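1st attempt posting a full record on here, be nice pls
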Amino acid sequence: MPGSRAVRQQGFTLLEALVALAIVAMVVLSFLGIRTEALVDATRARNWRLAREIAEERLSELQAGAHETPPRSGDEVPLEKYDGFSYRIVIGESSVAEIESQLADAAAGEDGAAGERLEWQRDRELYRRASSQGLSYSEYQDKLLEDEQRRQLEERAPSETDFEEVAIVVYFPKLDPDYPDQKDSLLIKSRLCTLAIAGLTPEQAAAIAAAKGQAPAAGGGAPGGAAAGAAGRSGGTGAPAGGAGDGGK
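the predicted structure (as tokens):
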């Protein structure tokens, strides 16, 4: 009948409209999800770029001796300009090795295999350093402790020919944290002369040495280039140990 045919046509039209709305909703939700993910990725990339810039700026300041007072090794300094960002300067080979180990452990998290791999990498690096100095692994460990104790006890006057290993660690908010206030981190390191670290001129260092009754330093060696790296997001901010670490503090 003509009336029933018209009702059926109206019914099909309503069904088609509902299907079209459902398709539009799926497309919009998919677009919003992609856009949100893109924003998160852009923010994460911005944080890593900013962390590297901060670390390189602090290292450049140390290399140039552009600071009024020597930095205190291990102290964490918040950055008011960047919410949630802070940095730490670590001085001394053993202290740098310790902070690298801490960051690597944090990056590995509860992943047992990753933790064992990082431990193996750290041991391999220590063996390599020991071999380069003609020492056994245990002798090298003892030397690190002796050097640290000597550095603290002797309080030698800063010198252009004495060098220390220095690391800059920048901490910043983690976008997908496993627990509240979890941080990502980036570490770069280099060898700097103690004169630059102290922020003194050669004349000021000579006056300090004379006051302490010390002779000018006789050796030291050339500084190495800065080494940098980014460790992974709770088990994956790039390369896990050997340069930088990431994970919760």
